Amino acid sequence: MREHAVEPGRVRQMWHLLEPLHALLYYAPEAFDEAAALGYDTGERWPSYFAWRAAPLGAPGPALVTSVFYSFSPGMVARYVPGEAAPNPPAQPAAVLAARLRAVDRTYRAVLGEDTVKSPELAEAAALARRAAEAAGAEGTAGAAGAEQRPLAAANAALPWPEAPHLVLWQAATILREHRGDGHIGALVDAGLDPVESLVSFAAVGAAPERVFESRGWSGEEWAAARARLAARGLVDADGFATEAGRALRAEVERRTDELAAAPWTALGPDGTARLAELLGGPWLAAIGSGLLPSENTLGIGKV
After folding, report:
1. What is the pTM (predicted TM-score) of this model?
2. What angle do CA 97, 93, 37 make, to 5 degrees?
3. Which pLDDT does position 85 carry in this prediction?
4. 39: left (phi > 0), else alpha (psi -120 to 50), else beta?
5. Residue 265: in which H helix or E strand, if any?
6. In 3D, which of 271, 259, 26, 257 has the Cα closest to residue 131?
7. What is the reported pLDDT for 91?
């Protein structure tokens, strides 16, 4: 083991701690206010979700977003990128990125509280998270499928760092979660799981009920066809539950994802990573306790 290696369990714990701090953007009323000011329909969360998350890529078309987001159906992506509900023409990426930071600023002040936002503990957490994020390069993830790139991590890492510590923390959390997500897609590809199969197999191991995955836009027919393909491989049974082979495959995907996500935490080191985990406890509790985030999610937070 390398001298500064971090245990896989710690790598996954850091994802669990940082993901809610990133995801507040997609649910907070302050973020919907900012999206509405840009002209996005905020009657549902998807127009702003796709705008916020894709903006670092520039002005990507549906094909690119479908590829790098991976788990959404192409038909759903085509509705929002640039989207039937989006402004015509869509807001410029620079305007979306600026509004994104305003949304995070307002959301963190509301959810974490002014005292926490201005605290030395949050500033310390931001500095540690930034060190980890700056080690999250856009290197390829070698595997059976070849060298997979890290487009979302690279795009977010290329953005200038904000000055305020709470915004630094959010940007670092975003780079790190996209770095992990890009690697996760590589692990899914190596496992031979296409986008809808990745969701069906995840539901089959109990990551979330099937109804939760309906948010990704796949039709009942597409879901059933994917289940049939997995059954033909011996990965799910007749009732759609994972077989022993199916559970083993998903466990390997998660193990490989942790492995591919480890570099930033190895760079930060065990002590720095442990200190960041300690500092994130309060903000994490505030995010979870805000009631803004869904209790069940397609990422399997709290289940894997």
Report:
1. 0.93
2. 65
3. 64
4. left
5. helix 263-289
6. 271
7. 83
How many Å apart are CA 95 and CA 91, to the nearest integer?
A: 6
Q: What is the pLDDT of residue 147?
A: 34
Number of H helices, E strands in the chain: 15, 0
Task: Give the residues across from 236 on adjacent strands.
Answer: 242
CA–CA separation, 195 vs 226, rounded Å? 9
**What are the residue ranges in the chain where pLDDT is below 70?**
1-3, 83-87, 137-148, 302-303
Residue 164 near residue 15, CB atoms below 8 Å: no
Q: Quick one: tokens of 37?
A: 């000011």
Phi, psi dihedral angles at 6 (to 5 degrees): -110, 140
pLDDT at 139: 54
Q: How far is CA 174 from each of CA 82, 91, 92, 105, rounded to the nearest angstrom?
A: 22, 21, 20, 14
How far is the C-alpha of 304 from the C-alpha of 294, rounded, in Å?
16
d(CA 125, CA 169): 7
